[in-house]
Amino acid sequence: MMQLEKIRQEFPALGTQVYGKPLVYLDNAATSQRPLSVIRKWEELSTERNANLHRAVHRLADLATQEYEATRDAVRQYLNAASREEIIFTSGATASINLVAFSFGEAFVREGDEIIVCEAEHHSDIVPWQMLCERKGAVLKVLPVDDGGRIRLGALPALLTPRTRLLCVAHISNVLGLVNPIKEIVKICHSAGCPVLVDGSQGIVHERVDVAGLDCDFYVFSGHKVYAAPGTGVLYGRRELLSRMPPYMGGGEMIETVRWSGTTYAPLPQKFEAGTQNIAGTPTLRPALEMVKRLRDPEILAESNAIKSFMLNGLNKISGLRLYGEPSSPEEKIPLFSFSVEQAHHEDLALILDKMGIAVRSGQMCAEPLMDRFGVTGMLRVSFAPYNTLQEAEYFMQSLERAIKMLRG
Length: 409
Ligand SMILES: Cc1ncc(COP(=O)(O)O)c(C=O)c1O
Fold this sequence. Notes:
The chain is of the alpha/beta class and 409 residues long. The protein is 39% helix and 17% strand. A hairpin with a 2-residue loop joins strand 11 (255-259) and strand 12. Residues 29-30, 92-94, 122, 124-125, 170, 174, 199, 201-202, 222, 366 line the site of pyridoxal-5'-phosphate.
C-alpha cells in the first residue's frame, strides 16, 4: 500500500483528528477532501496570478486567462469532448443543470412537451426540471427504479414519445451507489430523437468519463466532489445544442456588442459565462483531474474493491439492516452504502459515529422522492473515496456494531 499511503499524505485533512481521534472521512459523496496540488494552485493564483479574465492587456490578466483557458483544454481532453467550445465553466453541478433547464427549455420546450427524470435523482436534477415544466406547461415523467434501486430500462421505450424533449439521469446515484447503464439509455433515447443529460456529480469521481463514448448530449459535475475548489463546476454540452440555446445570464464577457438597439452575444463558450468567473477556483480542476488519474492506480483500485466486498459482507451480516442499491454485478456498485437499521435511527447512529471520529451522512441525501420509493424518512450513508483504506472500513464496521448495540440497549 505504498502508493495509497503516499497519496494520502498529500491530503492534509486526512491526517487530522476529531475529538482526539484520527478522522475517518466517509462523507465523500457530499464533498471530497483536497490535495496539496489543488490548495497550492489556488494559492498560486491568488498570490501571483490574480486578475480578471479575458479583459485587460496587462501581464497578470494574461497569466490568469492562460490558466483558465488551459483548464478548459484539460477538461476537454479529460472528458474526450470534441471541442473546447463545448466546455462551459459554472459554479457546480446544480448551476450547470439550471443553466440547461433554463436555456435548453427556452430553445426547445413548449407547452405539452415532456421531460423525463429518473426516480433516483438528486433534488438538483429534479427541481430545475419541475420549474421548467411549470414555466412552460410541460409534463415531467419519471423513469422508475426497481426494488434494488436499478433503473427499469424496460420501462423506458414506453415513456418516450415524439413530445419528449430531454431525459435526465445520474451517471451514478448519490444514494444507491449504482452505476447506471448510460450507454444503453442514450441509445434508446437517441433512437426516439430524445437527447440525454447525465448528472456526473458522482460519476466523475469513480468512472473514467468519456462523453464521446457515452454519446450523451450534456454531462455536468461539481469540482468540489472531485478534489477541486468549491464553487467550480463543468457543463459539457454538444456544440450543436449549445449553439442553438440562448444565454442563461446576461452580463460582462458574454456579449459581442451592446447597443441600446440590442445586444449580440459572444460565441461559445463565453456566451454562457457571464460576469467575473471563479478566477482562482476553476484552474484547480486541472490538478484535481490529475489526482483522479493518479488514484486510478491498480493498487488503489484493488483496495477500493476490497473495501467494497468487505463492506457488503459486513453490512449483510447485521441483523435488521436494510441496504439500498443492489448491484447486478460488483462493477455496477461504487463503494457507497446507504442503509437503515431497525431500532437504531440514522441520525443517532451518525451522531455516535461522529464521536468515534467517523464522518458519515444521515438523512434524505437530497433525494426525497427516492426515500418515499423505499418508504423511509432517511438513511445512513457511508461513501468512500479512492483515498480511503480497508483499515478505515474495518474501523467503521466495528464502530457501527458498537453504536447499534448502544442504541438497542
Ligand atoms: C448526484 C448528484 N447530483 C447533484 C448534486 C449537487 O451538487 P452541487 O451541490 O455541488 O451542485 C449532488 C451533490 O450531492 C449529487 O450527488
